[in-house]
Amino acid sequence: MASLIEELVSTLSSEIEVYEKMVPISEKKTRIIVKNDLEGLVSITEQEQLAVERLQVLEHKREEIVRNIAVVLSKDVKTLTLKNMIALFHNQPEVQKELSRIHDTLQSLLKRIVENNERNRMLIEQSLEMIEFNRNVLQSTFLTPGSNNYTSKASQFDMPLGQMGTFDAKQ
């Protein structure tokens, strides 16, 4: 059992290392989105993808270890969370302390990453809305016949009223 716990701690520590690398990546992604740097966005997305692939391998390994721990403890693997394991090891305070530290660290890192990702999602949505708005304005301008030049009074158009274009908000 001790070797399973050591293996779990090692795997979770490796996950923490990857998540610790993902936090600055997600923060850098925010700056790239704000600057509208498409090349930078492609590059940072590739970095994120590599981290996600590494996490998938570690997650698979963690699931296997937890299944083995569940068998040894005669517990249902579906209910054996890290928090539950912490409670199960009340007779082993060092193991309990290490698992608690890992749990708290993972929870903190994941919270930061989720917040950053949510901010990035909102920024991307706003950017897409602005692109769509600009596209509609440009399309409306090109579809409108006439010169659209203002006169010296800045309140009159050089275009007959019957030829005014319409703004199509559905496009």
Description:
The C terminus is likely disordered. Helix 1 packs parallel to helix 4 and helix 3 packs antiparallel against helix 4. It contains four helices and no strands. The chain has 171 residues and is an all-alpha fold. It is elongated and about 80 Å long. The protein starts with a helix and ends in a 28-residue tail after the last helix. Helices cover 75% and strands 0% of the residues.
Number of strands: 0
Q: From the alpha carbons, calculate the radius of gyration and give it in angstroms.
A: 28 Å
Separation, N- and C-terminal Cα atoms? 62 Å
**Count of discrete alpha- or pi-helical segments spanning 4 or more residues:** 4
Structural class: mainly alpha
User: Regions with pLDDT < 50 over 5+ consecutive residues?
Assistant: 161-171
Largest sheet: none
- Which percent range fits the helix content? over 70%
Considering the chains and any ligands shown, give keywords for the structure.
171 residues; 4 helices; disordered C terminus; single chain; mainly alpha; 0% strand; 75% helix
Question: What's a concise summary of this model?
Answer:
This protein is mainly alpha-helical and 171 residues long.
Secondary structure elements and pairings:
Layout: H1 2-35, H2 38-73, H3 82-88, H4 93-143
